[in-house]
Amino acid sequence: MNSRVAETKSGIEIEISVAGVLFDMDGVLVSSTLGDERCWTRWASHHGLSDTFDLRGTHGRRAVDTILEYLPNLTPEETARHLAQLEASSAEEQSGVVAYPGASALLASIPPGRWTIVTSASERTMRSRLSAVGITPPAQTVGADRISKGKPHPEGYLMGAALLGQRPEECLVIEDAPAGIRAGKTAGCRVLAVASSHSLDELQGADWIVASIDQIGLAVNTHTDALKLRFPVLKSKTESA
Questions:
Q1: Which GO terms describe its molecular function (predicted)?
Q2: I want to staple 121 with a disulfide (CB 3.0 to 4.6 A). Which of 44, 65, 125, 214 is the partner?
Q3: What are phi and psi of 140, to 5 degrees?
Q4: Is residue 34 over pLDDT 70?
């Protein structure tokens, strides 16, 4: 992966060349935080956990990991029932799901087979939310039900890179949550964080931070076939070094 730093009148711009792009979904392509938080608030209240439940701790994690954090003694059958209840609750919140400005255009600029989605949501929830905003996902994606360990474990992003037939170090991860940033970095990818749901301090593990996804431009290098991305950064490892 090659990168270049440029000073402009408005700040620092980064230009990088990669072989593939691995997108998180919630907080990057679509906004569904309010609906998710309503689902988790109902779940926590129903199980008497309102006083100790941390909503922000659910961001970027598989639902099963959050469930077992608070109810560690559940049997597999009980865990499956909790997941099914949350899936049903989430389906009722689809009307509040919206695509971030620029998300559809960015995806449309990437050739097929050069990008995929690695999300902590289930495959069913992912496809339902993307359908609600008019985004067609690739045939092969990585949802929570395809992996045994969720973010911040790197399994999902390692699988995503493998689906593209690329080495992790040749892929860019685009994330919005600390758990996803750690997963991408541990997998060996470079990580671009979008400041849509967390503070800049919480995103410091990323290589670069951008204000919004609509600030990312992408073109295909006709000579090398590399994906060339350019974006203004709020903070970068290069800048802080």
A1: sugar-phosphatase activity
A2: 125
A3: -110, 120
A4: yes
Same domain, 111 and 138: yes
pLDDT per position as a tens digit, 15-29:
999 999 999 999 999
- Number of domains the chain contains: 2
Same domain membership, residue 58 and residue 113? no
- pLDDT one-digit tens code per residue, 187-227: 999 999 999 989 999 999 999 999 999 999 999 999 999 99
| Residue 106 sits in the same domain as residue 26 | yes
Asked if 146 and 122 sit in the same domain, the reply is: yes
Compare 73 and 94 and report the one with higher pLDDT: 73
Please list the active-site residues.
Answer: 24, 26
Can you give the pTM of this predicted structure?
Answer: 0.83
